[in-house]
Queue: 2 jobs
Job 1
Amino acid sequence: MASDSFVPILTDSELKEGQIIRVQISGRSILLIMKGGKVFGLSNSCPHMGCSIDKGILREYLVMCPCHGWKFDIRNGQYEENSAITLVSYRCKIQNGKVYVEIPAEA
Ligand code: FES
């Protein structure tokens, strides 16, 4: 049984390998990226100057912000030049043909 905090957001056929999709969940703009058969979820707001990253370029496991080229590892959200700077990561899973994103409970 799925945990209540996982929200179904897409069917798995809507997200192709290497594709970046922006979704809105509970007021959060989130990137979903399919890579290597897994789905990665990241905040869509670049920690540099707040640009949306959904129009960025994906190379292997790095997504590049379209504004000034900062690159982030989609597996953990880390900025490649300073691991102390990260995009918020969201756990994702594919189950029964749907893509789920875990939204943490509000504090
Ligand atoms: S806003 Fe993303 S690199 Fe500058």
Job 2
Amino acid sequence: MDCTLGWGGHSEALLEAGASVIGVDRDPDALEAASARLVRFGDRFTPLLATFSTSPRLIGEPVDGVFADLGVSSPQLDRPERGFSFRFDAPLDMRMSQEGETAAELIERLGVSDLARVLRNYGEDNRALPFAKAMKRELPKTTRQLAELIERMAPRKGKKTHPATKVFQGLRIAVNDELGELEALLAALPDMLVVGGRAAIISFHSLEDRLVKRRFRELSGVGTERDAYGHPVTPPLGRLVHPKGLTTSDDNPRARSARLRVWEKT
Ligand SMILES: C[S@@+](CC[C@H](N)C(=O)[O-])C[C@H]1O[C@@H](n2cnc3c(N)ncnc32)[C@H](O)[C@@H]1O
């Protein structure tokens, strides 16, 4: 099961290796594009419009592998109208599923302190409060309005990363409840897999990786509570396949921060 089908790159590799794949995505555009790309695999490929939190209930039988490549896809980032990127001017949207509350509506609904919390906790931005106050004052409706507002308050001064990067990350995580969704997937994992099955998750920032690392260690009895004989109080359900996770030597800026962690149900 590929929980983050996107435009089907990873699913294609799995199908070429001989697997049957259920490809899940919450974005209808991704399902459509990947289904066209993977049509040659016939009924070995099953597309499923769902989220991490709804898909475990929909798969029925346990599977041999659960895979997730977290975050947004390049086509989502590169399509101006999706409103994920400050490189283009577009409505401030950021919804992967194309339904529910947009980023502009979220800014309008939240009070200053809740908005600051989003920017601090999800964007890890240390100017969260002044940014939140300015956003509530100006209520930006487009990516450019938001990027310019932040740039006025925190000029670039030759820095490589745009000052609005963290603000955009925080809003995107909140709009899509990305950490809540990841927690739901991590909670369901043991029941989704057959014995000997593996979960492989690629994360792109420490907020996600921390959740994956903690859950995989807990499921493997690493660092968990021990009894007087040194045995884990809760028997482990599996093992860590790469205890430290794997990183890439690829210097593609979109892959650079990736970390892959793998857990096996035993
Ligand atoms: C980084 S991309 C995956 C790219 C894919 N591996 C490929 O080869 O094209 C992440 C995808 O996961 C989807 N996604 C993210 N969070 C999701 C969730 N909670 N439920 C379902 N799909 C999600 C996004 O819509 C996006 O298409």
